[in-house]
């Protein structure tokens, strides 16, 4: 590799770093963020659980409510239940709605999960709260979106809350600080693969 | 709520479940998946670390190579380093390229990380390998994409490998089983917020 390429590279990187440093100086605010992971691609819940892991690494206290997974045995529950001193983990759903086939029961389960969520959102000892698949419950109008928005807006100033699930309501996107849409580009189901441990659950 | 609504709901859900069960019967294949998280949105690495947590929950053995984070203290490293019996964790980068400003050193670091990755991909005792931000090293051509493709294609049949980072090479998308594009809808940087513990690192 010629010396020129390396010199040019160093110059370009110095310019990039100067630009980035200047940008970073404008980023001075810190507060609890409201994050939404939506879209029809994979990774919405996984990214939420990755944030749980990061938070635990920093010694934070975390709350998790799973709205849909029900009595399923999942890798995330098996793992994070190992840390009861740092993680308050609640699985409130009774399974997917097409499994229960009982609307009244689904509504009761969703509302019980929401009661638990409200307590976690208000609890000043929790730094981060993950409401996994709450968007599904909102989509079916099992929860009142106006109440959810109101509770989220009234959360303690330094609390991060992450909401996952496809078809996020526009009212949520409106108040969110960070919204990521996970877009499906290629999915193994298309090729006949089963959902697999570690990857899908 | 009238009885009718609930009866209709139960019928609709029975139909949905029948449809889903029929679909699931066609999904019979199991093999190690090649997953790519790309795009300019958040959650690419987080979703990879969520899969690490899930895998650990199932008692799997996991390998992680971080190509870019360098000597940064991150929540993910602080956390997953707690489980040396289940996680082989290597941070090989020396920081972002605009920090080092030294192309030769970046290339050497990327190649050392790739050597470690190759060993993990070939190691039959590891069930899941996360190559975090490898796409950045590939984008700068610090690694040879043809060699990376060849090594990934030759991996043990039951091994899951996840590659993250924006600007994934088309050759990778071509051989991947699952590709998710994380799309930025709204980012707190736009509003002046700093990168924060637990959320960004």
TrEMBL record, chains A, B:
Pathway: Cofactor biosynthesis; adenosylcobalamin biosynthesis; adenosylcobalamin from cob(II)yrinate a,c-diamide: step 2/7. It is an enzyme of class 2 (transferase). Keywords: ATP-binding, Cobalamin biosynthesis, Cytoplasm, Nucleotide-binding, Porphyrin biosynthesis, Transferase. The keyword Transferase applies. PANTHER family: CORRINOID ADENOSYLTRANSFERASE. NCBIfam families: cobA (TIGR00708), PRK05986.1 (NF004637). Required for both de novo synthesis of the corrin ring for the assimilation of exogenous corrinoids. Participates in the adenosylation of a variety of incomplete and complete corrinoids. Belongs to the Cob(I)alamin adenosyltransferase family. This is Corrinoid adenosyltransferase.
